[in-house]
Write a structure and sequence with these properties.
Length: 149
């Protein structure tokens, strides 16, 4: 026999779970995206074409602060051509907002690279916007835009 009090408590418990489950899922997705963002940063520093390819959608749109836009193949080729190497890349103050199967990632990029031709060091100070999209259980980079600071 169920009384009103028991019914009310069980309804309240189910309601609490309904509100908690999406929050936990968003948190798990945010964690997964954060791991992918860090893997991307490390792949950029290492100039690792296989790692970069695995992190990006085939339809990637990669925009530089100069306004140049590259597709996936061009981005990977240019990022790994050996004309320069990253000495450091820091993603400062990252924010991640998951909206359904999409994640909006923003951060302040501080980087330094060395040009192979003359050894010249170049610093970059940018604001980055990345859009990641969930593909099955995997998050992949769909687009990236950079603005000089």
């Amino acid at each position: 026999m169920i009384n009103r009090r028991d019914l009310a408590l069980s309804t309240l418990a189910v309601s609490a779970l309904a509100f908690t489950a999406p929050a936990l899922a968003a948190s798990a997705d945010e964690e997964a995206v954060a791991k992918k963002v860090e893997a991307f940063r490390l792949a950029q520093i290492a100039a690792d074409p296989k790692a970069l390819a695995g992190l990006c959608w085939d339809d990637l749109s990669y925009s530089h602060s100069s306004g140049k836009v590259e597709d996936k193949a061009t981005f990977i080729a240019n990022a790994t051509d050996g004309k320069s190497k990253f000495l450091s890349i820091e993603y400062k103050d990252p924010t991640i907002k998951v909206v359904g199967p999409a994640a909006i990632v923003r951060f302040h990029w501080l980087g330094e690279q060395e040009m192979a031709a003359d050894g010249k060091k170049v610093s970059t100070n940018l604001h980055i916007l990345m859009n990641w999209q969930k593909q099955g259980d995997e998050w992949k980079l769909l687009s990236r835009a950079a603005t000089k600071l």
